[in-house]
Amino acid sequence: MPDAEDLRQFVAEQQVAERIPGDNGVVLDKMIDTKSWQELPPTDADLIVRPVLTRKELKAFIRLPRVLYKGMPGYVAPLDMEQNDLLDPKRNGIYRHASVRCFIAWRGNEPVGRISAVVDAKALEAWDEKIGWFGALDALPEHEIVRALLDTAEAWLRDQGMARMRGPVTLGYHGESGLMIDGHMEDPMIGTPWHPPALGPILEALGLEPTRDLLTFKLDLTDDLDDRHIVPGAMKPGEGKLGDVTVSHLSKKEITAQGEVLRSLYNDAWAGTYNFVPLQSYEMEGLIEQLKLVLRPEHYVQIDHAGEPAAMALVVPNIFDIARGIDGAPSPLGWVKLGARLVGHRFESARVILLGVSHKVRGTVLGALMPSLAIDELIRRRATLPYKSVELGWILDTNTPMLNLVKRLVPEPNKVHRLYEKAIPSRHN
Question: CB within 10 Å: which end of the chain, N or C, has fewer?
Answer without folding.
Answer: C
